[in-house]
Specification:
The chain has 180 residues and is mostly beta strands. It contains one helix and nine strands; from the N terminus they run ββββββββαβ.
Length: 180
Amino acid sequence: MVLTALFDMPEGKAQLMLRYDISAAGEVNVTQKMTTDKEVQVADLFGFGLQLQMPATFSKLEYYGRGPEENYVDRHSSAFIGKYESDVKDEYYPYIRPQEIGNHTDIRYFSIFNPTTGKGIIFEGYEPMECSAIPYLVEDLDSGIEKTHAWGQHNGDLVDKGLVQLHIQKCQYPLGCIDS
């Protein structure tokens, strides 16, 4: 079965196409393509990929890529390619101000599963990708551009929502460190 979804993105003068090829064995091949108007001036794209939420019972990770600590395209030379296992809760580091966290680069496969049942999902790419799984939503980690309200400014403000947010991406914007 093949399902195709088209999304108009008028603010960016773009269109996003998602195609899902679903096999009888339960495998899903996802193709994502964004077509843009090259004449339009828009902000840089933070990342290109998919995000989804899963119940917190999917709490174990296994992946082959750079790890075990978080790493980013401009900060990964100390993270070596290998096979790693982790708990989702350990992918979050309590920086004083909540922020993007837990990314892994050069991923060949990334699986998340329920340790009790052993059931889960495996993500594989045709080329290396970037992935993360954390127990918070992006909105929980970033209180906005101006940071004018008191709530959301500190790690202790985060509330457990009983979920896991996955990011499966082709790439994510660099951190912007001194060597970027």
